[in-house]
């Protein structure tokens, strides 16, 4: 069910499904979506400083009225705030906007060259100070992870990357599994553009499920944490209804076979 979790390297339980809020507008739209999601039973909310909606995420959390310890809130340090002191300050600013005294997961949003190792030292400090219950990275290739792990005291617990049936990321998933790093999928629905795929809709028809639900179920069965975005109450509910069916091994492989190594977003070796 929706409170089904996966254990991070430090023992923290991370929900397997969450709500992404990139492009959910600050104000009523974001606050309402977060409230609906939590009322539906979502525990994980994924935001970022650069989404400019942390304040509304906080409002949605409070409006839902669920005890803080039942929620799992993620935010991220943006590229222009990387570095040691600036990351510490960015965490405090995010907490203030969210109206929280800790987040469950704090991530380095992108591997800014020449900066991300210093940023990681700040992440370790934030973790030790209890301002984040877990720390990790986003958009890191294996070589970025190796670079951090060479000097880290605390290893990254999560790597949030673009991942969907057109970009299945098998080598990176294998690397992360070996290093006890949980993989989290961003743009799991290909930003909505994979939902007319025949393979996905055909599999969905068998179970009375949509293509979106088939993809999210495929994530869960691969032990990938997934954070589809929607601000529509019906879709928020639809995306959560994935714990009452199971894809066969053959169907899992059919979906794996849709891989094209094709990105909707930037390559972490080449972004601004
Ligand atoms: P997504 O793959 O979740 O797709 C979202 C789109 O699909 C929206 O336009 C929505 O209207 C549509 N949609 C959602 N559910 C649907 C349904 N059931 N039926 C039909 N359409 C549906 O795309 P995303 O927002 O890019 O990614 C999800 C989250 O991942 C983001 O909100 C954000 O939290 C995170 N993210 C992180 C990074 C990063 O760099 N770390 C980058 C992009 C996104």
From TrEMBL:
GO MF term set: oxidoreductase activity, acting on the CH-OH group of donors, NAD or NADP as acceptor
PROSITE patterns for the chain: ALDOKETO_REDUCTASE_2, ALDOKETO_REDUCTASE_3
Location of the NADP-dependent oxidoreductase domain: 16-259
A Pfam family of this chain: Aldo_ket_red
Binding site for substrate: 109
Gene3D superfamilies to which the protein is assigned, alphabetical: NADP-dependent oxidoreductase domain
Active-site residues (renumbered): 51 (proton donor)
UniProt record similarity statement: Belongs to the aldo/keto reductase family.
Entry protein name: Aldo/keto reductase
Lineage of the organism: Bacteria, Bacillati, Bacillota, Bacilli, Lactobacillales
């Amino acid at each position: 069910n929706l409170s089904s979790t996966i254990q991070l390297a430090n023992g923290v339980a991370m929900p397997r499904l969450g709500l992404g809020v990139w492009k959910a507008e600050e104000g009523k739209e974001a606050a309402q979506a977060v409230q609906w999601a939590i009322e539906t039973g979502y525990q994980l909310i994924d935001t970022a400083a650069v989404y400019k909606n942390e304040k509304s995420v906080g409002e949605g959390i409070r409006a839902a009225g669920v005890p803080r310890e039942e929620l799992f809130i993620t935010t991220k340090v943006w590229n222009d705030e990387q570095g040691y002191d600036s990351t510490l300050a960015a965490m405090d600013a995010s907490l203030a906007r969210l109206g929280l005294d800790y987040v469950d997961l704090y991530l380095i949003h992108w591997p800014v060259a020449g900066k991300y190792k210093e940023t990681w030292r700040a992440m370790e400090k934030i973790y030790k100070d209890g301002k984040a219950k877990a720390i990790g990275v986003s958009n890191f290739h294996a070589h970025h992870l190796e670079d951090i792990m060479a000097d880290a005291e605390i290893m990254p617990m999560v790597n949030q990357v673009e991942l969907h049936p057109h970009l299945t990321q098998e080598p990176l998933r294998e690397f992360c599994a070996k290093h006890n790093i949980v993989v989290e999928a961003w743009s799991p629905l290909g930003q909505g553009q994979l939902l007319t795929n025949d393979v996905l809709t055909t599999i969905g028809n068998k179970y009375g499920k949509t293509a979106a639900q088939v993809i999210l179920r495929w994530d869960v069965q691969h032990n990938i944490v997934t954070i589809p975005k929607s601000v529509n109450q019906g879709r928020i509910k639809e995306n959560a209804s994935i714990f009452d069916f199971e894809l066969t091994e053959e169907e899992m492989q059919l979906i794996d076979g849709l891989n094209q190594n094709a990105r909707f977003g930037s390559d972490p070796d080449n972004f601004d």
